[in-house]
Specification:
With 306 residues, the chain is of the alpha/beta class. The chain folds into two domains: 8-128 and 291-304, Rossmann fold (3-Layer(aba) Sandwich); 131-287, Rossmann fold (3-Layer(aba) Sandwich), CATH 3.40.50.1370. The protein has twelve helices and nine strands. The protein has helices at residues 13-28, 52-63, 84-92, 105-114, 129-143, 159-171, 187-200, 210-214, 234-240, 248-251, 274-277, 284-304; strands spanning 41-46, 67-71, 97-101, 119-123, 150-154, 174-178, 203-207, 219-222, 259-262. A five-stranded parallel β-sheet has the order 7-6-5-8-9. It has a four-stranded parallel β-sheet with strand order 2-1-3-4, with helices on both faces. β6, α7 and β7 (203-207) form a beta-alpha-beta unit. The longest helix has 21 residues, at 284-304.
């Protein structure tokens, strides 16, 4: 029976921990699974452009013996040139798994509903589970644990935050979120994550004061203030988020050995300053590298059952 990876909340805490353990093995022994997915083909169906998601998945499938086919916005007009369900059913006859990077989360859900092969959410407007999986791996690697670690997220309540909240709730992290009131995470997603946290021993809190959120944190995480698809709101958002910049003054409020994370691309001088990105506490590029190891673990799990 095929399995999809559309949200972190659709997987159990035990399953996520196994993925993270496998990511660690992939990183420590990069050639250990060199032929595990020999002959397998991965389709990348992208409505939105990408550097990290595309390259990390293409390299990941090749490093485990398979191959990838990229279909960009000009190749597949989901729901326009032909119905999404027709694209899903057709591609499933050719390939072994599909990564769908869409504007609407409904599109990736429809893809999964009709495709007979595993579908991975490479990003949608509501969730970014692949990014969060790599992020959790990075926190575990640097902080030494997930359960009980304190992660402060400062910025927009977007798809990245939604997936981080789901992961934190399932795996027992303390997640403190600071956003302007108008840009809080979606209520339904947040509520479910809080419920998971109540069972795992985690704790999710929201405030509108970045200093309060980062005080004593092990990790400070931020993302762009204006995600793809919201460019027209750029000027309004820059004004609303002015006090939510991750800079040296804010970092000093956290634990001394606090780690800085950003999923990239970064708008240096807006949500984060250049000196913080380049500082000794920054894990931004280690975090980017860990996309590769997390994606290898995901592909091995979905296609091989490793």
């Amino acid at each position: 029976m095929k399995r999809d990876f559309l949200t972190l909340a659709s997987w159990s805490a035990t399953e996520l921990r196994r993925l993270l353990e496998l990511a660690g093995r992939c990183k420590r022994s990069p050639r250990a699974y060199a032929s595990a997915l020999s002959g397998k083909t991965l389709a990348l169906v992208f409505q939105k452009p990408s550097v990290r998601t595309r390259v990390s998945f293409e390299v990941a499938i090749r490093q485990v013996g398979g191959s990838a086919i990229y279909l960009g916005p000009e190749d597949v007009y989901l729901g326009k040139r032909e119905p999404t369900k027709d694209v899903a059913r057709t591609l499933a006859r050719y390939v072994d798994a599909i990564v769908a990077r869409t504007f609407s989360h409904q599109d990736v859900e429809e893809f999964a509903r009709y495709a007979s092969v595993p579908v991975i959410n490479g990003l949608s407007d509501a969730h970014h589970p692949c990014q969060a999986l790599a992020d959790l791996f990075t926190v575990q690697e640097r902080v030494g644990r997930l359960k009980g670690a304190t992660l402060a997220y400062v910025g927009d309540g977007n798809n990245v935050l939604h997936s981080l909240a789901e992961g934190a709730g399932l795996l027992g992290l303390a997640l403190r979120v600071a956003t302007p009131p108008r840009y809080r995470p979606q209520a339904a997603i947040w509520r479910q994550a809080v419920q998971h946290a109540a069972r795992s021993g985690g704790r999710l809190t929201w405030c509108e004061n970045p200093r309060e959120a980062v005080k004593g944190a092990d990790v400070i995480y931020t993302d762009v203030w204006t995600s793809m698809g919201y460019e027209r709101e750029g000027a309004v958002r820059r004004k609303a988020f002015r006090a939510f910049q991750v800079n040296q003054a804010l970092v000093k409020q956290a634990n001394r050995g606090c780690v800085i994370m950003h999923c990239l691309p970064a708008h240096r001088g807006e949500e984060i300053t250049d000196d913080v990105v380049e500082g000794r506490q920054s894990m931004v590029f280690d975090q980017a590298e860990n996309r590769l190891h997390a994606h290898k673990a995901l592909l091995l799990t979905l296609l091989k059952g490793v």
